[in-house]
Amino acid sequence: GQNIDQPTEMTATEGAIVQINCTYQTSGFNGLFWYQQHAGEAPTFLSYNVLDGLEEKGRFSSFLSRSKGYSYLLLKELQMKDSASYLCAVRDGYGGATNKLIFGTGTLLAVQP
Amino acid sequence: DAGVTQSPTHLIKTRGQQVTLRCSPKSGHDTVSWYQQALGQGPQFIFQYYEEEERQRGNFPDRFSGHQFPNYSSELNVNALLLGDSALYLCASSLVGTGIYEQYFGPGTRLTVT
Fold first, then answer.
1. How many DSSP H helices and E strands does chain B contain?
2. Does the distance separating the beta carbons of B42 and A98 come in below 8 Å?
3. Rounded distance, CA A17 to CA A90, Å?
4. B30-48 pLDDT tens trace
5. DSSP-based three-state secondary structure for B65
6. Span B78-108, pLDDT tens digits
7. Given CB atoms, is A105 within the 8 Å cutoff of chain B?
8. A110, A7 in Cβ contact below 8 A?
9. Which of A30, A18, A24, A34 is nearest to B56 (CA)?
């Protein structure tokens, strides 16, 4: 079956660091994405991991362990505008012709002053 | 550089009716995927179109159908609408064969079925 788990909600303080975890069990794996989605808006791309390790992009970092079926998104120096839902998604497909994404339910992050 | 566009933005329909949603992919993209996102949930994959053919399909009934045109734009059709079809419908585009697997999402169409 296809299963992606992430916490439903998290709360953090402005200026702090927060880690959002994601575990997955999927029939296929060809990369893991993190998207940010503000209420009522489309998801926007944050990061993509296909090999094990850490990918850093400014205040955002994402980690992947394929053997453990585990990823996390790390947000540093939190700002109020980071309050949003964070979606973990696995690319389930092989080759270049398929690009299906399987999403978790999302983690709603609330950043408090 | 135009991003992914969708129309209409909002739509209200009655149970049993039919609806057509439209999507234009990001300039240069050739693949369109459709997702349904219920309130408080992650997007659920409906189907994907590439080279004007349905390439993959998620667990959605045949009431959901689609089409891709030669200019890569796409339509999502839903027949015999149910209350449970109320959701945000997202279109995402990508480019096959480049090794760039990011999907760009449009703003979505909010469908309400009464």
1. 0, 11
2. no
3. 24
4. 999 999 999 989 999 999 9
5. strand
6. 999 999 999 999 999 988 766 667 889 999 9
7. yes
8. no
9. A30
